[in-house]
Amino acid sequence: MAEQSGPGVEHVLCHVCGGQVTSFLDLGRQPLSDCFLAPGATEDEYFYRLAVGVCGSCTMVQLIEPVDREKMFHEDYPYYSSGSSVMRSHFEDTARRLLEHTATRTDPFVVEIGCNDGVMLRTIHDAGVRHLGFEPSGKVAQAARDKGLRVSTEFFEERTAVQVRSTEGPADVVYAANTICHIPYIESIFRGIDALLGEHGVFVFEDPYLGDIVEKTSFDQIYDEHFFFFTARSVQAMAAAFGFELVDVERLPVHGGELRYTIARAGKREPDAAVARLIDEERVRGLADPIVLRDFADRVERVRADLRTVLHDLRDQGRSVVAYGATAKSATVANFCGIGPELVSYVCDTTPAKQGRVTPGTHIPVRPVEAFRDSYPDYALLFAWNHAEEIMRKEQGFRGAGGRWILYVPHVHVV
User: Fold this and answer.
1) Which H, E and C letters describe 293-350, residue by residue?
2) What residue segments make up the domains of the chain, in order of their start?
3) Does residue 1 register a pLDDT over 50?
4) Hey, is 251 helix, strand or coil?
């Protein structure tokens, strides 16, 4: 139960340490970010309140209200990691890095939490290394199985980890990408890691970095699937709470800025100097400081006002505007800013499962990218801004026809 303390401020208990979490940003009523419905099936659409706060004890930034996991990750979950050439390359490189941890092991075993369509595990499989992926989204899991990969459709937690340990033995590497930040029941995750990981094994995960979100005002990284917003400092505290130690960190450019964390059993590996350096940097930047976080919230409000002004002005001028990339995070932007079909006529996307449907909450039609190329608009709002370089390179014809891109990270601007 949330407690109120002053206008717009409330407190809940931290999902990591049980400390007090104080809200600093409220993005209002939001739909499930990856729930793309048929045009005539929006009457019973699910909505929840999207607000975020910071723990005064362990500094973990997290959502005030979690959404049930079964509502988000299910048979028809539409995101496929292999859809981007940049991400395919990233995960191939990541797999090779993970294999370095298994080089001296006999019959090594690699487990991935949230393996999606197997984009990373494919390289592990091709190297002849024993593996298992956890992927509760049925159709996505089947896409991984179709590649010859071993995949469980259960959720990873203490119970399922214990089962795997009993049949497969200890894991040398447990890896997750854009998954651990999704999971409020983090104690069960670490108990599962404790049960499954070998004595000298490593738990490696990468997720959006709060430092980048604050610096870039990329508030669209906040949506139902992202429950935690990690920093090196908060992950160090989280690992220690469950008997583990943060031993390395690495900045990643993907998805608008992420951090890769390497965690080991306490005392089993010497922490890299990069950990202390980054934690010191985070303290200087004040990433857990309520004043800094409230300033971030103020900048979010400015982005909303500026984006609405640009789109309303273009509509009044009779200019055509569409959006590019029916991303999960675009649900936050569209619903928080009130962007519907009256401002953006459609959004194009390469994902077949989204095409012919409408965006969550705001019900903008989703069309294939061919629609974009058949008749270029005057402006395109780039929801998939984290893939801007790849998209703009692919869509040079749009610029050649005089089209212009609208971006809102780190501020609203037209290029």
Assistant:
1) HHHHHHHHHHHHHHHHHHHHHHHHCCCCEEEECCCCCHHHHHHHHCCCCCCCCCEECC
2) 81-291
3) no
4) strand
**8-state DSSP, 155:** P
Do the beta carbons of residue 374 and residue 50 sit within 8 Å? no
**Residue 78 reports pLDDT greater than 80:** no
- β-strand 404-407 against 413-414: which pairing, if any? antiparallel
Q: Is the dihedral of CA 329, 301, 256, 225 positive or negative?
A: negative
Q: For residue range 83-134, list pLDDT tens digits in order.
A: 778 889 999 999 999 999 998 889 999 999 999 999 999 999 999 999 999 9
| Alpha-carbon dihedral angle through residues 231, 236, 237, 240, given to the nearest 10 degrees | 160
Which run of H or of E encompasses 278?
helix 273-285
Report pLDDT for 83: 75
Average pLDDT score over residue span 247-268: 95
Q: Is the dihedral of CA 288, 290, 292, 295 positive or negative?
A: positive
**Which of 239, 94, 244, 107 is CA-nearest to residue 176?**
94
Angle (nearest 5°) at CA 40 between 36 and 44: 70
CA dihedral over 296, 297, 300, 302, signed as positive or negative: negative
Q: Is the peptide bond before 410 cis (omega within 30 degrees of 0)?
A: yes
Q: Which fold has domain 81-291?
A: Rossmann fold (3.40.50)
Q: How far is CA 252 from the centre of its chain?
A: 13
Instruction: State the Cα–Cα distance between residues 185 and 15, nearest whole angstrom.
Output: 7
Mean predicted confidence (pLDDT) in 362-369 = 98
Distances (CA, A) of 283 to 133, 216, 237, 276: 36, 18, 14, 11
pTM here? 0.92
